[in-house]
Each structure stands twice: as C-alpha cells, then as structure tokens.
C-alpha cells in the first residue's frame, strides 16, 4: 500500500515506555528517524495527544506516577506539575 502525503509531520508516532522514556519517530526519506527522546524517569502510565479543538492534536501529555508532563511535537517540555494524589494516575 502506498501513501502519498504532502506533509512529513503526518507520519509521526509517539511511544512511552516503562523506563519513563518518551520517543517520537518520524518518517524521513522513507525511513523511520527519531524526532526526539526524553531522559528516563518514572514509568509512564498514560500517554495522550491533545491540543486546541478542531485543530491537529499536536501536544503530547504523559502521566507518570503523580506527575503530569506536556511536550510539543518537537520535544520541548512546556508543562510539568505534581498532583497531590497518593495513587498513580492511570487515566
């Protein structure tokens, strides 16, 4: 199956792992290339995409323990706060 897209940022995948690393992969010249990778931290329990309504969901939000962090599609952290919850955030 061939895909013909005019913009390269359509082909990006974000992955959060048990080591607390968030990685974003993009397609460049037909091959997967890392766009950004964060440093290890707490185990990531939830990863969601978000943004302004009726626009592409380009913000990456993760929950790790009782902390919420937000990243742009280029990997810049724009949000980080610790909640007062005693349990880990799962949803």
TrEMBL record:
* Pfam families in UniProt: Beta-prop_BBS7
Q: Quick one: a GO cellular component term?
A: axoneme
Signal peptide positions are none
Identify the InterPro entries for this entry. Beta-prop_BBS7
UniProt domain BBS7 beta-propeller: residue ranges: 12-90
- Top-rank lineage group of the source organism: Eukaryota
Q: GO biological process: what's one of them?
A: intracellular protein localization
Q: Which PANTHER family match?
A: BARDET-BIEDL SYNDROME 7 PROTEIN
The name under which this protein is listed is Bardet-Biedl syndrome 7
The organism's lineage is: Eukaryota, Metazoa, Chordata, Craniata, Vertebrata
What's the gene?
Answer: Bbs7
